[in-house]
Amino acid sequence: MRDFTLFIPEYIAIAGAIAILATELIWPKIRKDYLAYATAAGALGWLVAAIPYIGDTAGDFEGVLLADDFTTYFRILAAGIVMAIALISAHYMRDRTSTAGEYYGLLLVAGTGMVLMAASRELLTAYISLELLSFSLYILVGYFKRDRLSNEASLKYILLGAFSSAMLLYGISLIYGVTGTTSYEGIAEALAAREGGTDAATVVGIMLIVAGVGFKVSAAPFHMWAPDAYQGAPLPITAFLSTASKAAGFALILRLFTGALVVDAVEWRAVIAALAAITMTAGNLLAIQQSNLKRLVAYSSIGQVGYMLVAIAAIGYGDAATAESASSALLLHIVGYTVSTLALFTALTAHYNRTGDDTIAGLRGLAETQPFLALVITASLFSFAGLPFFAGFATKLLLFQASTTDGLLWLVGLAAANSFVSLYYYLMVMRQMYLFDPPEGQTRFRPAPLLGALAGLLLLGVLFIGVYPQPAFEATDRAASALFEVSASGLLRLP
Amino acid sequence: MVPMENYLVLSGIIFSLGVYGVLARRNAVLVLMSVELMLNAVSLNFVAFSAYRIPSSADATGIIFAVFVIAVAAAEVGLALAIVIRLFRNRSTANVDEAATMRW
Amino acid sequence: MTTEVLWWIFAVAIVAVSAGVVFARTVIHSAIFLILSLAGVGAMYLFLTIEFIALVQFLIYGGAVTVLILLALMLTRMGIAGRPEPTTGVQAPFGALVAAGLMATLIGVAVATAWPGNLGDTAVAVSIETIGEELFEDFGAPFMITAALLLVAFIGAIVIARQEDED
Amino acid sequence: MAEHAWILAAVPGIAFIVMAALGRNLPRQGDWLAVLCATSIFGLFFAVLANFLNLGEAAWPVLNSIEWTAIGDFHLRMGIAVDQITIVMLAVITTVALMVNIFSVGYMKGEPRYWWYFAVLQLFVASMLMLVLADNLLLLYVAWELVGLSSFLLIGHYWERRSAVEAAKKAFITTRVGDVGLLIGIILFWEATGTFNILDIIHYVEEGAIGDTRLFVTMMFILLGAMGKSAQLPFHVWLPDAMEGPTPVSALIHAATMVVAGVYLVARMLPVFEAAGALDVVLVIGLLTALFSGVVAFAQTDIKKVLAYSTVSQLGFMFVALGAGYASAGMFHLFTHAFFKALLFLGAGSVIIGTHHHQEMGQLGGLWRKMPITAGTFLIGSLALAGLFPLAGFWSKDEILHAVEGQGTFFFFLISIAAIMTAFYTARLFVRTFLGKPRDEEVASHTRETGPVMTLPLVFLAFMSIVAGFFIFHDFGSAFGFPGGFSEFVFLHYPHAFHVDWGLVGLSTALFVIGTFGGAWFYWNGRLDRSTVMAEWQPKVYEMVQRKFYFDDLYQFLIDRVVLGFSYLVSWFDRFAVNDTGVDGSATMTGYAGFLLKHLQTGRVPNYAMAIAAGVVALTLLSLAVGS
Known about the structure:
Chain A is mostly helical. Chain A has helices at 8-26, 32-50, 69-96, 101-119, 123-141, 148-179, 184-193, 200-216, 225-232, 235-259, 265-288, 293-317, 320-355, 366-369, 371-385, 391-403, 409-435, 449-467, 470-488; strands at 59-61, 65-67. In chain A, helix 9 (225-232) crosses helix 12 (293-317), helix 10 packs parallel to helix 12 (293-317) and helix 13 packs antiparallel against helix 15. Chain B has a single domain (4-99), classed as Helix Hairpins (Orthogonal Bundle), CATH 1.10.287. The model of chain B has no long low-confidence stretch (mean pLDDT 86). Chain C is mainly α. Among the domains of chain C are: 1-77, NADH-ubiquinone/plastoquinone oxidoreductase chain 6, subunit NuoJ (Four Helix Bundle (Hemerythrin (Met), subunit A), Up-down Bundle); 126-162. Chain C contains six helices and no strands. Chain C is globular, with a radius of gyration of 20 Å. The termini of chain C are far apart. Chains in contact: A-B, A-C, A-D, B-C, B-D, C-D. Chain C binds chain D through residues 89-91, 93-95, 98-99, 101-102, 105, and chain D through 582-584, 586-587, 592, 595, 599, 604, 606-607, 610, 613-614, 616-617, 620.
């Protein structure tokens, strides 16, 4: 079926991107923050256009894309992230660049890539969508092209990205060789129908795919690009990397692993569990050593990826019901993590616009000079650490709760211990803000009203999800059950 | 005639050579060329799988995948070279080992 | 029989020039070897009697990509100045080790797996009609996404490489 | 009213929000609001109690919950459960909180961040009440973390002082270790029973829904949490340092309420501990803690430190009672201890204010002339702690002795020793602070009795320290809210109904006499300064005791060297082993001198690519190995 009405929201996003590019081309002297507001408006239109799709019957496009509640979920998430990032960028980019049209256009395109990754039910489409997102990110990371760090970050990102894409593709080719198809259902059917057990080709293929997607979500040991790219990128893009890019990676992983590869769960679940363990431990331990705030966030988000991978491992270890609740909890955790990260970066950007300092020590005495920003930063760090009443507590709790199966108890225990380690470096940051005096000449300041309002809104979101996760959970539950409606279709044969 | 495994082995060798190139060479353009080798191996794999499958006259998925891989590879090279050129303008080097300001 | 011999000659040549890409002492040599390697793989597609993909290979890879690379080499003045620096990094021996491990795995997989639906010795020609139909019917969506992708790469290359007043 | 007991927690919660938001801008910085809030929950408690008693046994425990979230067929309910143990805790918390709030108005006068202090105090009270009201482990855990947070904030109240910051950090980190255990335990329970509800869990366990080994492991994790909060060996290190906080905080949080949360948790889940066969562990830990910190208390020279170690020791007593299987004895000691220890801490606070911030016993002495009310109430508290018949501490210690009797002579002997030590260091504390001649005339000349806002709470708590023990008696308990007496009330139809065992009374009194008079004789000011004698006679032993058996040094070492060292190691591995030794080391070996220095830096693409490629190969090998 070629139903072109399934992706109307994405047309809006792409049209917005083109319109913004064209606007700057026609009117080069336009104030750059207007472009940001236009982007945010476009994203808002995108989000609004997505709302009618909630609960709509799943629409299939040629068997390669699927617009169901899972897709809609990521659609809303992507639109929300792009909107927030555009607003965060407004002053930041205006002060730092003379051309911003491509920047904002690519934000929208990247968001579209994320949605398509979530919608793909076929490897070729998934790969192309992944590259659409990646290409946009390569450019956005290196957007400050004369800035040595930005340029270096983008170089590392694209070289390693291409390298890991090649790995991913080789894995896909092996899976294609074994199953003769690239569609998820087809792969699952072929793997299930296969006689004589798993062959080495499938195993190697899956491992190469794990490496490829592991790179995208920056799971250790494929994570090394992340701290450098995070540090070099423009600050709002760091936020975008740590939210959209990770969410998209997990959207792809969820579709792929619950749809196509679940039949062979025995082959990959131990590996994913090991990756989860390595990732969370490495991320948290390395975070302790950081002095640059962006790198700290990078390592801390690597730690978070470790927690998220626990849910993927649980899909492999549990039965169908566990798999569904683990997916649902993972989606919820992604939302909580996204909102907290955006809140953190809104505050950091407001601080950075003022001081231009992205070291941890640069936050010295923020509680004195700007208590509200300090509060927002504290709340989001508490949320990462999983303290009660903040989003991270509820979502992490449900994540671990849903992932606890007999085979994974050790991993959940390790994750709990890791949360403890993470608190240490979060407290180091808070110490700077609350216990030290501001640097000489630093006086009380007011953040830009826009950033202040956005930070306040996101802070409310963090608290809301933490205190009353029910509405968010219903949404993720709906998305997860859509995911399993597709993949079930009689062949979800879990061990 | 030539069995499919021959193509797969050839592709495996090219791929591994490409991996070696990425790991060993210091020039960013050469790293990219090595990645091209890897992608080339992938295409070969896809086409071989497609050509040797039983209902292959009706199924061209592998070949189409290869076409897309080639297209994306070309685009990737274009973009990456732009970044390398920018690196060269910023630092007068295209050596990936020297583009290491950010570390630990 | 002739085909087989020819195939082996080509295969050995491809491996040799691919090795040339990664082992050559100057970048220009590597680039030339890359052209040869890409052309060789294109010839492999001819062995598989899929002329369409061979054509794509020659045009895009053999033509566009290599020209782009040569252009980049010139712009970064590499191979011209001939600066005497080691072409391989210090981790080359370890890289060789890992690559050898990977090669062993991949070859093992290729040989040991009983590929389902394998025709055995003879490849079947896939008609260009089939390719066209699938490309535009079944894979219409990725085709459109690829269009966006190429546009992004194009814009990105311009944005990043464009000379401006400050340069 | 009992089913709406959540209001008790809501009132201080709202007060906290109001005070945190308005802060300085409130008249008098909001201290009146704090006292008003404490008074109203004190009043509300009696409403809850009356209603609870009216409902009658059949209606206990009183439950009330709402659905918080529903995930598929998983329904998570949040609510409160009011049973007898909760009532006891409510009584303690509301009473002590009221006294401390009133006392603080005097004590904190003119201190920095006056409003913030009172705001956090309300947050603490709210979360502590939530902790004891929670009907499920999840809510309990949330409250558990929140009391930890408020304690952290209050210990670090004077954050200009480095020691206060360090102490706050230490308390936070140490208890967090326990908290992780608690969380893991909760997850394990969830995994086995599918519920967080405490009563349901007890029910499942009694039905044998969890295997033996697993149950034991789970209970060990839960116990870890309880030990962290209740400062049991080896987690006790944070409590003495927590004395860096304002003294009324020490009275409320670090003597009467938060630190007994672990005792409360074990008492609440006692049937599960029993089923798991984990009681012996509790007993041994409690005993070790009681003995160990009793010894350390001898060598302390700071009044508050003595009291802190005494608190640790008394918490050990409570654990001993629980470990012997007598929840009522443990809870009873918790109940009486709350009053006299709060009294002693507030008395110490009164001394500190009266002497203008002197709390080293070496500079005090002879205070009873200058501060008669403080001295008198402190004496009552000390005697109650030491166990003088018929003060509160006597009866609860008697109950514990009775409980341990069944555990064999050895344990009974050890706990008797601990009881003697209690009397001994208490005597030392009182004698050296209040009796004899002032050791420092300079200090003595400035000393004044504190005002009524501080002495009235002392008098009230002294009164409670005298009568609290009588709740153990059937008639007294029935008349004043604990029908049937404390033991009967806490554990309905508990096989052990209280009766006075005169043999034990005699023994107990003997222990008191030995300890108190021994201590008084040993430390009497007119004689030699005995602690110096001790220090000269056995300097090594003395130093060991004074350095608290080197526990703090050990932990400092562990934290400094091991944890950070490990993280450094991993980071070193990342930098040096992966990038430099592995990569550049080969270069050195092949003879490129100077290469190493130039290339010590990493952040290089090939190294990262290497990690990816090596990772792939390793993953493949791993999965092939696992698969075959």
